[in-house]
Amino acid sequence: MPPSALDGLPRMGLGLGSNLAADGLPDPFRLHAAEPGLFDYVEYSAPLALERAAREAPRFAALWAGRERLPALFHPVHLNLYGPELESPAALAALDAHVRAMRSPWVSNDVAWWHAGGHVFPGHRYLPPPFSRAALADCVAHARHVQDALSVPLLLENPAVVARRGGMHVLDFFAELHARTGCGLLLDLGHLLSHQLACGLPADAGLDGFPLEAVIELHVAGGVVTRHGARRFYVDDHPQPLREEVLALLAEVAPRCPRLRALTFEADGQPDPIAATMLRRLRAHAPKPGPGDAMPAAEPAAAAHHDPVPAALGATRPWAVFTESFTGAPASSAEPVEDPEGLRVELDFRLAVLAELVDRDWPWTRRLLAPDRAALLAFSASPELRAHFEAGAGEDVAERFAAWCERRLAAAPDAEACLVLRFERTARALAAEAARRAPPAPGGVALAAGAGVGVFDHDLSELLYAGQGLQRHLDGRAQAAGAWEASGLEALRQVARRAPPARWPFAVRRRAGRLELLPLPAGLARTLEAAARGGAWSAFTAAPGIHAGAVQWALASGWLQRG
What we know:
Mean pLDDT: 94
Largest sheet: 8 strands, parallel
Number of domains: 4
CATH class of the largest domain: Alpha Beta
Radius of gyration: 26 Å
Oligomer: single chain
Strand content: 5-15%
Shape: globular
Distance between the termini: 54 Å
CATH superfamily of the largest domain: Divalent-metal-dependent TIM barrel enzymes
Number of helices: 22
CATH topology of the largest domain: TIM Barrel
Low-confidence stretches: 295-307
Structural class: alpha/beta
Strand order of the largest sheet: 3-2-1-12-9-8-7-4
């Protein structure tokens, strides 16, 4: 697409970012209904294909139904603009059909490596390119490949960084990326702060001479700044509050962007009232929505614009970047780590994300087999996780963790960990089966949507109680002592060792992506087991052993439903 495609883009105004999760906060549609002038559009993240987005993003239906009164901008975060392979023509055709159907005036994405082997990197924690000439050539090839397939402009966003890689300043890198592709720019101010802190620079370093006239959109979002020795690091984390440094950058940068069309607040995870308060503050910095003005983009230099696309990507060896990012060590002794301190901070955050993802399915197995940084690093550096991305092995990170556990247990048998892994595998399978169950017919009874009832051959009630209590205890000590004492989790092993063989009924459901487990006393077990068999509501409530109190509790707690 020629640079003239940027001419006359509409002024979208102030936007709110959303990943369209079912229970995600803030709820853009509830906020807009309550206060229509609070923001002007939703910028949403979803899979590239419209059909998959409609299937996997629970609030996509609301976005689609309301797109006339609340416009949408597509920010897919499933789009590689760096990495060893270009996006497939089929994926880009699906992306273009998606944006045309949603009437998104442009598409934006962080210039980074997002997915490999059909899987997004854990927690959408992408791998940013090194800011080097070689990586620039790769990113030019990716951007041109994507833009050539789209009927709307592609905006290139500067990625968040923690560890320094490459010798270029991020703004110099993106200035040249713009010049060599003709793509407009999305400047994320939190991401810019992350680079400045990683390099020990003032927050506004490099802005003079940067083509702010090419900036079409600005992003602001929450993040955390921590100090390690003499250095400070910014970690992008949207549920956190906006830093004052980011707001100061916004006040400085927004008036200097003559073609600014949108300011988006990525507030994922923030409660509605908190997001609303910040949106009111941000309104003063946003362009007023309306028709676009004529804004011819600066033509890139002809020679640079016609540079040949590399026949093969990977001059920066992206898999070497992967190895460094997930293991904390260079891919080879000939490639020393450029920023060891920054890499450790980056790796710590990746390990925290891995632990959070694994804990959704294997909370107690993880605490027995990967309770500390060293064990989490062993999983992060494992062939099981690498194969997940390199060869597309396994459906999700949780499944790869189970495979890693099984290999460890085969090499070093551990009766307690085997017992807990077997139980959590049973619970996970029950929850998956429950998710496929049809609702009860009118006048009928069933377990609530997504709830399942099972029986295990050991009574693990004490394990569930002890695990939650230990977590609270160790978390509280860590806040005071500055270190998390994983050795305290030895109590879980003792509890698992003494778990008595017994018929132990339990209920399970998935809430906010996590498995929720409920030990069942006899009366509640009879109630939920009877509901799982289905039938008429009247027959169910009249059956022997079914007590009204248990039924009322199960209904109120969301474990039981009637048709």
